Amino acid sequence: MSISSQNTQDLTANTTEASLTERRRRRRERISVSLRYCLLIIFGLIMIYPLVWLIGASFKSNNEIFSSPWFWPKEPTTQGYVDGWKTSTPYTFGHFFLNSMKIAIPKVIGTAISSTLVAYGFARFEFPGKKVLFAILIATLLLPDVVTRIPQYLLFRELGWLDTYLPLFVPQWFAWEAFFVFMLVQFLRAIPREMEEASRVDGANSLQTLIFIVVPILAPALVSVCLFQFMWTMNDFLGPLIYISTVENYPVSLALKLSIDATEAFNWNQILAMTVLALTPSLVVFFMAQKSFIEGISTGGVKG
Amino acid sequence: MAHLSLKSVEKVYGNSFKAVHGIDLEVAEGEFMVLVGPSGCAKSTTLRMIAGLETISGGEIWIGDRLVNDLVPGKRGIAMVFQNYALYPHMKVHNNLSFGLKLKREPKEKIRNATAEVSGILEIGELLDRLPKQLSGGQAQRVALGRALIKQPEVFLFDEPLSNLDAKLRASMRVRITDLHKRLRDEGRPATVVYVTHDQVEAMTMGDRICVMKDGRIMQVADPATLYERPANAFVAGFIGMPEMNLVPVDLSWSESGKPLLELSGKGVAIDEGLARRIKKKSGKVQLGVRPQHIEVTTPNADNCFVATITNLEFMGHEINLHARSGDADFVAVISSERFDKSLQRGSKVGLKPVGSKVHLFDVDTGENISLASVDD
After folding, report:
1. φ and ψ at B123, to 5 degrees?
2. What does the pLDDT look like over A247-287, one tens digit per residue?
3. Where is the ABC transporter domain positioned along the sequence (chain B) (predicted)?
């Protein structure tokens, strides 16, 4: 009897201890989760604050920008946008946006088409020297951009392409960006070949298979290629700086710098306002593309 | 529709691995030919060579009276159903069906009629506006079948089309495909079919003839009954039939009365029922092949039986698989549940008497069946 009561006591003690440990464990977990999220929020805010400040400051007057680090304007004004849009040149900012598009659109289209063709070739066809060529392609990924700047400049000068947009997008028509080719090759490798084989049995040739079968399946990857290329083009400063010399042909990135050069006392509110506008196309394209990312065609036609 | 013939077809890969060793195969017009074999026997490679998805290293492939070696898949007059369906994921079912016809620039009216007819036959009319990802496995396989059917090809190629389906669906699709084949034959447009599978049940139930392959070679081409009753070699004998045929090395000698004697662990068993007339090789080491269904289980002291100890009993419902060991040899015998002696259990001694008319003897070196000399069973 006494033994059994002893056992019962032990059991109760064990149970209490177990629930105590469990409670401690939960409390520790709660604290750890709260800490993690606090840290994430703080770092997130630090990262995003400059952008928030930029948008806020674009509605401040020129004097207020430097008087307060807080992002919210005391006396909100759109004067920065109005004056900034006019610019100090004979052209409005809209003109420069148009110039940017004249570079970005052919560049994006060219990149998408040429990278797909080259990636399809590498991913799906056997040809002599394939491995060596692919190795060279990957090697160019590691090559710093700067190395090719001077020879390229000389080449384009010989072709008489200076102060035109051609040097800025023609190379992209020849799958110039190894990164995109590599990305598409990897994506293609993950797609089962049976669908392409089925289309060949259905009577499609390689090009028809590419257009009707591969490209639609590849769409999510192509969207990211276009997105990256568009954003990089909008942000590209060095390229236009080297090749474009007349103000009339300046894209947005150069035009922004222009407003800093043009006057002695910088109108920071105008610069900031135009910077905000310069960001918009990239953001709009990004959010549009994000939607199709999510709706991206899943490979539901193949089991496995 | 057309006949298909493979003449000394070879496949050698870049690393000089020879996958297919010069095979010859004739598939008659309207015939349902099944290629069956264990994985790695090059049955799919052979099919893909017929389709034109793999290049041919040697030999000739004829579809009808056309040599198709150098034709692209689309020009060979074939249609193929893939194991994983391979439907175009971004196209609705009706576009999946009509893609081939659209590429051929067939008139819209014809495409519409063909789609309606095929979706009627396969009962996929309600699925026409769905995307492949909205289909179940069985539905997707039917659409894949429809995509082949709509082209009215000369030869249908199936590459393990049912292996992704569950057992029940597989059984019903099996019936559906054979029914379809019969229906087309009855309608006067017989379909020549080459069907690849590793499943012997599919092979036996579906094929007019079966081609058993191993390591890139054809082991035997015959109708299901012949394969089962008169296997050309030990491989075919072991591959076809469930449970597997018992293959046991024995010594063949002859009794004074001229009956073949099979000796296993010192005990000779005389086999009657015409085996003597069928045997080519007259004595020495041979491999005895007898199906589990063709072993009578008797008492251990009965005449002319192998004495064995029961190692396991598997109750299958209507029958019992009896596993027994005699010396170094393992046997499986199938007994119907009603005739099973309930006193038998693991460790019991039994007599195993092969039914003479069903016994096969194989050459131990080549595996060739040496008991096919004349047909008298």
Report:
1. 55, 50
2. 889 998 888 887 776 555 677 888 888 888 888 888 888 88
3. 4-240
Strand boundaries in B121-189, DSSP class E: 155-159
Q: Are strands B329-336 and B319-326 parallel, antiparallel or unpaired?
A: antiparallel
Q: Which residue of B has its CA nearest to A215?
A: B90
Residue A192, preceding peptide bond in cis (omega within 30° of 0): no
Interface contacts (A, B; CB < 8 Å): 96
Residue B350, in any domain of the structure: yes
Task: Tell me: do B163 and B60 sit in the same domain.
Answer: yes
ipTM: 0.84
Query: Nearest C-alpha of chain A: how many angstroms from B215?
Result: 24
Residues of chain A neighbouring B84 (CB-CB closer than 8 A): 192, 194, 302-304
d(CA B210, CA B227): 8
Q: How many domains does chain B have?
A: 2
Which position has the token pair 């259990």?
B345
Hey, are the CB atoms on B53 and A201 less than 8 Å from each other?
A: yes
Which of residues B184, B199, B229 is at a domain's end?
B229
Q: Are residues B215 and B251 in the same domain?
A: no
* Contact: B86, A299; criterion CB under 8 Å: no
Determine which of B99, B143, B147 to mutate to test the interface with A (most A C-beta atoms within 10 Å).
B99
Is B90 in CB contact (< 8 Å) with chain A? yes
Q: What pLDDT, in 10s, does the model give residues A99-140?
A: 999 999 999 999 999 999 999 999 999 899 999 999 999 898
Closest alpha carbon to B38 in B160, B165, B192: B160
